[in-house]
Amino acid sequence: MASAIAAATAPPTAAKHSVLLLRRANDYLAATLRARYRVLSFYDSAAPLPAFLAASAAALVVGGGSIQIDATFLDAAPYLRCVVTTAAGLDHVDLAECARRGVLVAGAGEVFSTDVADHAVGLLIDVLRNISAADRYVRRGLWPVQGDYPLGSKVCRFFLY
Q1: Contact 16/37 with Cβ under 8 angstroms?
Q2: What pairs with residue 40 in β-bridges?
Q3: Do residues 85 and 65 touch, judged by C-beta distance below 8 A?
Q4: What's the CA gap between 55 and 102, in Å, rounded?
Q5: Is the pLDDT of residue 36 over 50?
Q6: For residue 115, what pLDDT is reported?
Q7: CA-to-CA distance for 16 and 19, rounded, in angstroms?
Q8: DSSP string over 110-161
Q9: Is 64:43 a contact under the CB 8 Å cutoff?
C-alpha cells in the first residue's frame, strides 16, 4: 500500500511538458516555469509568431496581453488546451473561440486591482500638480532662465469642495 502511494505521488519520470511563453518574464517567473516545464520562449526565438507556433506542440501558453489569442492563433497552435494570461484583463483573448475549441482560459483576475488603483491615484496627483511637467521644465534648464514653474491645483480641492 505504501509503495502505491509513493508511486502515485512521485514526480513523473517522463519528459517535461512544453509551455509557450509569449511574454517577457522576470527571472523569478522564468525560473519557476523552467523548473517544471520545457519553456519555449517567443521572445528568445527569432521566428515570427506563426512559425513559432507551428514548430511547437505545447498544450499550455502563458501570455501577457500583447499577443491576440484568436481563431488565427488557435489554428496555428492546434495542440493548445490552456491559456494562462498574466494581464489585468482578458481583452486579448477570444473567449468564445477558446470555449468553442475546448481551450481553458485562466486570468490574473483582480490580483492587480490595488496596484492599478495606486497607479491611477499617482497619475491623478501628477496631472493635477504638474509634477512631470515641472520635472521636464527643470531638466531642460528653464528654471534659471524663466523662474519657478507654477504648481497645479491642490488635490484636496477636488475631493473636499
Answers
A1: yes
A2: 20
A3: yes
A4: 21
A5: yes
A6: 84
A7: 9
A8: TTTHHHHHHHHHHHHHHHHHTHHHHHHHHHTTHHHHH-PPPP---HHHHHH-
A9: no
**CA 44 and chain centroid, separation:** 16
Grid cell digits, residue 39? 519553456
C-alpha cell at 34: 523552467
Query: What would the pLDDT profile of 63-100 be if each residue is shown by its tens digit?
Result: 877 889 999 999 998 888 999 988 878 889 999 999 99
pLDDT at residue 158, rounded to an integer: 60
Residue type, 84: V
Return d(Cα 118, Cα 113) in angstroms, integer: 9
Cell reading at 27: 527571472
> Cell triple for residue 154?
491642490
Distance from C-alpha of 126 to C-alpha of 120, rounded to nearest angstrom: 10
The answer to pTM > 0.90 is no
More confident residue, 29 or 160: 29
Q: Which of 19, 46, 47 has its CA nearest to residue 33? A: 19
